[in-house]
Amino acid sequence: MGVARYFTVKAINLSLVLVAVLLLTAILFGATGLSDKILKAIINEEVRAYRAQLASQHTGLSEEEINKMVSNFRKSLEVQYGLDKPWYVRLPEMIRRIVTLDLGTSKHMTSFSGSNRIKDIIVERIPYTVMLVTTAVVIVFIIGLGFGTWLSTKVGSIWDRGVSLFSAISYATPTWWLALLLILIFSYYLRVLPYGGLLSPNPPKEFFPRLMDMLYHTILPVATLVLALSGSAIYIYRSILVSTANEDFVTVARAKGLPENLVLRRYIIRPSLHPILTNLVLGLAGSLTGAILTETV
C-alpha cells in the first residue's frame, strides 16, 4: 500500500470514528438527561442576566410585570434551545450543529473581525493552530524516526540510556512551564525572540516579509512543543524498531550476510512503518485540537 493511500484510508477511518463518537456522545448526553441539564443551566444564566437588566433599566415595572416578561423570555429560550422537544427529536439537529460548528455565540470572545459567533472564532483561529501544531508534529516525527532508528542500533549504550532519561524528563515536564522557561531565556534575557503574538505590532504588508515575521514568532511555541514531544516520540519509535529487529526474519537476513544498512532499511524500518505512521496520523489529527496552554503562554 502506497503512503498516499495509507494516509487516505487512515483519514477516512478517523472521520468515521469521529462521526461515531459524536453520535454516541450525543445519545449518551440525551438519554441520561445531561444535555437537558446543561441547556437548562445556560437558560437559567441568561434569564438571571435578563432579570437583572430589566430591574436596572426599567425601574417603573412592577414585580408581576417583570416575572411575566421573564417567564416569556424563558419560554422563548426553551423553544430556541429545543427543550420543548424530546432529546431524540433534537438529536439530528444537534449532530448537524456540532459538525458544522454551529455552536452559538460567545459572550466574552470575538473574532478578529468582531464577530461573536463561535464558528467564526474557531474558523478564524484554527488555521494558525493547525500550522503551529502540525509543524511541531512533523518535526517531532522526523526527529523521532531519525534518532529512534539510530538508537535502535545502540541498545544499552550510554546514548540509549541518556535518551531514555531525556524522554522521561520531557514527557513529565509541563508544556506551559517549558514555554515560560523558554520565554524567560530567549525573550527576557537573550532578547532574540519575541514574547508572543503571531505578528509584530506593525507587520510588513508584503507577503514574503510577512511570512518571515510569522515564522519568527512561531519559533518559540514550535520549539516548546518539539522539546515536550520529541523525547517520547524518540523512545516510542526506538522501541518499535528494536522489537522488529528481534524478529526471526531479521535474524535470517543477517545470517544470509546482507549488509547491515540493507537489513536496517528493508527488514527493520519498512515493517515498522505501519505503527509509526499510525502514530503520525493520530498526531496530525490531534493538531486540530490545538495546544491551548502553549498558544496562550
Features of this protein?
2 domains, 297 residues, elongated, MetI-like fold, mainly alpha
Q: Could you describe the 3D structure shown?
A:
This protein has helices at 3-31, 34-57, 63-80, 87-99, 118-152, 158-172, 175-189, 207-245, 248-255, 260-286, 292-296. By secondary structure, it is an all-alpha fold. The model has no long low-confidence stretch (mean pLDDT 81).
* Largest sheet report: none
The count of strands amounts to 0
Number of helices: 11
The CATH class name of the largest domain reads Mainly Alpha
What percentage of residues falls in helices of 4 or more residues? Answer: over 70%
Averaged pLDDT? 81
CATH architecture of the largest domain: Orthogonal Bundle
Beta strand %: under 5%
The tally of domains stands at: 2
Q: Tell me, what's the shape? A: elongated
**What ranges have pLDDT less than 50 throughout 5 or more consecutive residues?**
none
Which radius of gyration do the C-alpha atoms yield? 27 Å
H/E series: HHHHHHHHHHH
The CATH topology label of the largest domain is: MetI-like fold
Q: Determine the structural class based on helices, strands and strand pairing.
A: mainly alpha
How do the strands and helices of this protein lay out in sequence?
Elements lengths: L2 H29 L2 H24 L5 H18 L6 H13 L18 H35 L5 H15 L2 H15 L17 H39 L2 H8 L4 H27 L5 H5 L1
Quick gist of this model?
With 297 residues, the chain is mainly alpha-helical. The chain contains 11 helices and no strands.
